[in-house]
Please model this.
Amino acid sequence: MKAAVFLEKGRPLQIMDVPEPKLNPGEVLLRVKASGLCHGDIHLIFGEWENDIAVKTPVILGHEIVGEVVEGGNKFKRGDQVLVYSSIGCGRCKYCRRGDRQFCESVRVIGVHTDGGFAEYVKVPSEEYLFKVSGNYISAAPLADAGITAYNATKGIGEGDRVLVIGVGSVALLAIQLLKMKNAEVTVIGRNLVRLSKAESLGADEVLAMKKKDPPFSPVAGKKFDYVLDFVGNDQTLEDAPWLLSREGELRIIGEYGGHLQIPEQLIVLRGLRIRGILYGNMDDMVEVIKLFEAGKLKTLSVPYKLEEINEAINDLLEERIVGRAVILP
Model:
């Protein structure tokens, strides 16, 4: 089968012919229909997470997978279109028992620790990690990570809550849609004017552009928010975001751009602030985003690329030329 293989840190992925996966008992074989390109894949390719995530090369990346059942399992029939929940847990710990497989100490992620979706076929350890989904497969693929991450990032936020969204990447654009479904008051701040325009079209109440010559959060100076959702997560955003919270406000960190969070203790204690990290979503979140997608309420803003164009897609993502989610078609 054809696959885009990660061979060496910092090098383009190589389009190669590799053997099709061979199934062990209990595993399911999928014909990959589409696989989203996550910025996490970029971090892996450039070795930016090598101190935290051990990736053994060669490996096929791609953890945002929609595919068609070919063989294995009993729950689904051949030809069923399914999404893959990619965080494979031990199944025994407290996190796995409650469905939060992404926090399992022994987690193995498809497309990171084992071969993933940037290929014609992929195998999944068990059918319990598969979720049937109807509709356009190119649009469905981002639900498997971007969708559930955005859903998780917006949990507990309700009508009238003042929310600042930092960043206008694909997950942030999904979160804006979810926040407006909850009737939250949404302010979006970012640098990419085209993406900011898209955020406005998706219902953001206020869209503010940060200019390089100005202090980063000058457009929201003097404002306070109940929630700040940081989809960037670099030193600059993490330094300033806590100061934008109202009393008992909550900072949710979703972006993973290597920032360090340093907050004076008195700011946290005296204002009763909360800080929460967002890692993917759980299996229940997958069920909910599929419902919203199938009801036509959630747009993933997918931008398709052929498998042979995957390095072009990576460059376009790095250069911020994509508004939405790049999706790779084998």
Remarks:
- Residues 170-181 form the longest helix (12 residues).
- Residues 168 and 192 are 7 Å apart (CA to CA).
- The two ends are 10 Å apart (CA to CA).
